[in-house]
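User: Fold this, then the next.

Assistant: Folding the first:
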Amino acid sequence: MTAAPRHPSSTRHKARKRALDILFEAELRGRSVLVTLAERTDAAEPPVREYTGEIVRAFDAHAEDVDARISAALAKDWSLDRMPRVDRTACRIAVTEMAYLGLPVGVAITEAIALVEELSTDESPTFVSGVLNNVVID
């Protein structure tokens, strides 16, 4: 019997990482996430998985609510704009998945932590975990 793949090689993890790339790029360039998604899908290098599109489209449809939930979870002296961009984007993906794609809270938090462990600062996993544990999902 073979063991289940670890997070970095799982299909969903790769889809989340690609969604992070797309959301990060769109914010950095001041462009629509849907336009950026379409460009990346057309280029297909690397390929854009179906779940990546689901995440990006759900975030686009609910961006204001997602950001409000994250902002409400931050400490008083923090703002969404003050968060490192990778951390903010990983939190946006996690909240989108929890609130709009039905992903269990624990799974979403674990996946966000895996993304920031791979792509952000040494302090990011603890920070992102703290923020996401304070997000209210109805």
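Now the next one, as you asked:
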Amino acid sequence: MKIKLIVAISVLMIFASCTSQRAVDLRDEITANDEQLKNIMVSKGSAEEEKLNCLINKDFEGALGAIDKQEQQFDSLIKKTAAFSVEGVKGGDSLKVAAINYYQALKILHMADREEIAQQVITYNDDTAMVRRAQDKMLELSKQKQTLFQQVYDKDEKMQTALGRFDKENGL
């Protein structure tokens, strides 16, 4: 009797402690995406660093080129995430959607720099009326950017919630 009870408890513990390898793989892919995201936005030699250096040097064309590179990197990350297989993984679909939404919000935020740079170019014009309009537009764009930052924050919060739920559902 005791042996049957011990065997039954052992079998239950083994099943309870097993985690889906697909869930672990998805979690690893999301973690790898975080590293790629860091490389896009803050790493030394990133397109973001290139853009900032170009802006410091008033190389607006170079800055726009860096934004184009960054856009391609965001698109690649989003496409890669959309291709993740979540079939049979508890909470996998909601995590995938939350991650894509977060990456898209970050992309939109960073792509907003294009319009700011276009207005910055105008501020070097000799026509004071044009310069004032460009400055007014830059102020308006700054306000819009605050909204974009809030959207990124909200999407990040949703992603972290989905990640926590995913970890809990899959015993990670």
